[in-house]
């Protein structure tokens, strides 16, 4: 049993959430987003029950849970606008915790950790330099951004290292999921802190995010 109906339900709820948010019904949007995230969390838990390596699967599942909490916090900033900055940064902290757990799990399967760390560090510097040339943010957001982009870039570089060393259905799905998550975050940053927000970029950001989380969860079913 692969539990795929839950994944499709998560995508369907995410689509409803995006439409309702576009209509500026922010309370309903939070509820729908929480429901979509709850589905990918349950999907991850059930997928993890099929994994052969629970020591790898468990941190991933906790990371998915932290991502679901972060989802709600990020959208609550539209409901409680006075606390928008604090809610956004708290949500980013939860996402950061999830990325750290993903990295922790991946390290156990990586035979080329040092090259992956060096590649991740270099790519982080390049991406941050490019992002900071495109957006305007305060010092607090810059500090958060450095750690956040560093963590997700490290996750991607280690996932790439695992894929190159041990190509499998699991490593392919996990890498594509991690890459989708990274691109989603870059789009989110550009759309949130760039010159103006665009609805089409919001859709791209959210679509890639849910696909990324679901692929990471699905990869657990193929873990050998």
How are the secondary structure elements laid out?
Elements: H1 4-22, H2 26-48, H3 54-79, H4 84-107, H5 113-134, H6 139-165, H7 169-193, H8 199-219
Structure characterization notes:
The protein is built from eight helices and no strands. The protein is mainly α and 224 residues long. The chain has one domain (4-222).
Series of H and E elements: HHHHHHHH
Q: Quickly count the helices.
A: 8
- Structural class, please? mainly alpha
Largest sheet: none
> What's the N-to-C terminus distance?
16 Å
Q: How many individual domains?
A: 1
How would you sum up the global shape?
Answer: globular
Strand percentage, roughly? under 5%
On the 0 to 100 scale, the average pLDDT is: 93
Low-confidence stretches: none
Total beta-strand segments: 0
Q: TL;DR of this structure?
A:
With 224 residues, the chain is mainly α. It has one domain. 83% of the residues lie in helices and 0% in strands.
Which labels suit this protein?
224 residues; 83% helix; mainly alpha
